[in-house]
Structure formats: structure tokens, C-alpha cells
């Protein structure tokens, strides 16, 4: 998506350690007009599919998912919560996700009331790097018996391989920008064609 | 706002300890059509004011704020982040907020890049009870020299007093529903007229 790539080039910052900061428009300050256009793109890509629900993970995915939902007939958006601890009272689907940024595992939960076997789910998130967070969301869908119809991502770090692994497993991953390489010294970013 | 009150009556659950669960449509599963209508209501209420930015706090405020932003000319939405620890490198405004739900204080930050003295800010959040989170957001605005033009709330727990304290301080608080009392035994909820 040209608009997003240009925005990343203009307002993104490449840091050492494979970090791409896009907090000017994506995950601290949010450009809702851009989010709307992203939703339009995903709606075009997933047009042939039945989507009954959008599932994302707090916090950065929520705004993007809520803006995108308009383009899928205002389907409900459910955000998986990062929990302090896993509550074993049985009314939640739970998994754990390892965060490389925070260097620790954290529990992720979705209430059983809001995800079930009738759901056709579109997963949405801001970033896809190694794919750990998405694998967690997929696990929650499997636990609920829900089908994963597709995955919409704003920024995929192609060089970290998570997206291609998901594609090899048969998932329809629509990343609106795929960074193939980036250079913290020059700030240069190369996108996949 | 009739639609929201009816929805709270229908899908909300009153729990002991002054807890009102609205995770079916507000803060776990999100009804984006309702969020859109809420944005319309706030836009009507704050119509005479210049709003250049919406400020909220992760995680539950983000979806509501992003849907509301359309009705304010697609102004940027900034969400304050709950940090693990306060980073004193000087590029962030920081404060601490005490959470009664989690029974602890946590640091809240906004990057100095995304809030400044030129900003006319609308604060948006899902709940207003004692007002601790909002006071944190107001403090961040004051630190930035930004003016707080108004406060848009989905559910105010009127009996906890935070909203009326803010009104007494001169803030224009537009709560779309104000719960005056609720009964965990009967499930009955009374709204302020």
C-alpha cells in the first residue's frame, strides 16, 4: 500500500536492533484517516470471504481494528487482553505470548463469550515480525473452534520471517507494507515489491 | 444517550463491589457502530470548540477514541501508555495513576512529540469513576501546556463522584450515561436524568 509505505519512509525511524519506530502515526499517535484507508485495502483483499469478527490484541491493534471494522459491515472487534496472570475459572481461552521487545512471556486471554465455533475471524495487528503474537491469536481461535479467514497486518518485517512462515502454513496474510531491509545508519528502508 | 443506556441495561452486568461489566460491547468486545454513534454525540456536544487532538489511555479508550475522531475532522488520536517503569530520558511526559481495579499505581507516559502547547485536547475514556485516570491525563496536558477543551466519557459512575468533582473544577464533562445507582442482587441500574 503506497500511502503506508510513503508514510513509513517519511515519519518512521529506523533504530538499531531491527527496531522500526512508527509511533508518529501507528502505535502511539494514531492517524485515523490512514487507518480508514488500511481498512479499505483489507476489505478489498478479503472481499470473497465471510468475516463475522475481527480479533486483535491490546493495545496497538485496537484502533486499527476498530477503524477497519467499518469496511467489514461493522462486525464486532474483540481484543485479546494481556493478563497479569492466568485465571483458571474456565470462562476464558488463554495462551501465552513471548514478547521480544519486553523479553518476557505474558498470558493472553479472550472471554469464551466473545469467540466461538460460528466465528469466521479476521486477525488484525500493527506489526508482524516473528509472528509470536499472531500465533497466540490463532491458538485462541483454534481453542474456540473459530476459523481464521485471514490476517491483516500494517507493517510486516519480512526479514524476520514470521509472515512467510504463516503463508507456508496456508494463512492468507495481507501485509500492507513488507520491510525487506532497513539501515539504522542511513535510515534507508527497502520494501518488498 | 438513550442507545447506550439501553445497551448497558440489556448487556451490562452489575457485580458486587460497584463493578459494572460492559465487556460485551465496550471494553473487550467492541461495537463499532455504537462507538460511531457515541462519537456523533460528543461532536454535537463539543461543536463550539476547537479540538486538535484526542487523548485517551490504553487499552479500552483507544477503539472509542479512534471511532470518535472521524466526527472531529479526523484529528490525531494519542493514547497514553501504561509503562513498566518511568524512563527519565526527558522525551516523555510522565505521571502515575492509581488503579482501584488493579490496586496499584502505574506510570503513564506520552511522548513529548505528540502533545504540545498548541494542542486543544478532547479527553476520551470508557469509564469515569473516581477520576484517577482522567486526572493523570489532565496532568499530562498541563505538563505539555496543552488546553483541555472537554472530556467525553461513555459510562460515568455518578455515585463515585469523580465526574462531579471535575465539573466543579470547570471541566466540560460529557458522559453519555451516568449511573446513579446499581444493585448487584436485582441487576437494576438507575441512570441520572
From TrEMBL, chains A, B:
Entry's Gene Ontology cellular component terms: cytoplasm
A GO term for molecular function: xanthine phosphoribosyltransferase activity
Keyword Glycosyltransferase: yes
Principal location class: cytoplasm
Keywords assigned: Cytoplasm, Glycosyltransferase, Purine salvage, Transferase
Top-rank taxon, per record: Bacteria
Residues the record lists as binding 5-phospho-alpha-D-ribose 1-diphosphate: 129-133
Pathway it works in: Purine metabolism; XMP biosynthesis via salvage pathway; XMP from xanthine: step 1/1
UniProt key word Cytoplasm: yes
One Gene Ontology biological process: xanthine metabolic process
Top EC class, one word: transferase
Protein task: Converts the preformed base xanthine, a product of nucleic acid breakdown, to xanthosine 5'-monophosphate (XMP), so it can be reused for RNA or DNA synthesis.
UniProt name for this protein: Xanthine phosphoribosyltransferase
Source organism per UniProt: Bifidobacterium bifidum
Lineage, highest ranks first: Bacteria, Bacillati, Actinomycetota, Actinomycetes, Bifidobacteriales
Amino acid at each position: 500500500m503506497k500511502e503506508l509505505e510513503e508514510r513509513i519512509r517519511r515519519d518512521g525511524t529506523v533504530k538499531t536492533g531491527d527496531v522500526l519506530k512508527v509511533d508518529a502515526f501507528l502505535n502511539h499517535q494514531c492517524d485515523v484517516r490512514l487507518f480508514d484507508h488500511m481498512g479499505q485495502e483489507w476489505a478489498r483483499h478479503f472481499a470473497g470471504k465471510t468475516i463475522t469478527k475481527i480479533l486483535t490484541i491490546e493495545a496497538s491493534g485496537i484502533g486499527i481494528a476498530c477503524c477497519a471494522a467499518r469496511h467489514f459491515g461493522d462486525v464486532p472487534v474483540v481484543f485479546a487482553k494481556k493478563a497479569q496472570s492466568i485465571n483458571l475459572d474456565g470462562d476464558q481461552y488463554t495462551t501465552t505470548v513471548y514478547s521480544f521487545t519486553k523479553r518476557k512471556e505474558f498470558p493472553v486471554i479472550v472471554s469464551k463469550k466473545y469467540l466461538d465455533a460460528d466465528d469466521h475471524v479476521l486477525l488484525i495487528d500493527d506489526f508482524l515480525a516473528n509472528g509470536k503474537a499472531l500465533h497466540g491469536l490463532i491458538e485462541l481461535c483454534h481453542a474456540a473452534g473459530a476459523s481464521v479467514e485471514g490476517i491483516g497486518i500494517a507493517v510486516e518485517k519480512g526479514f524476520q520471517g514470521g509472515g512467510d512462515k504463516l503463508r507456508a502454513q496456508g494463512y492468507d496474510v495481507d501485509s500492507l507494507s513488507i520491510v525487506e531491509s532497513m539501515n539504522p545508519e542511513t535510515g534507508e528502508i527497502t520494501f518488498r515489491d
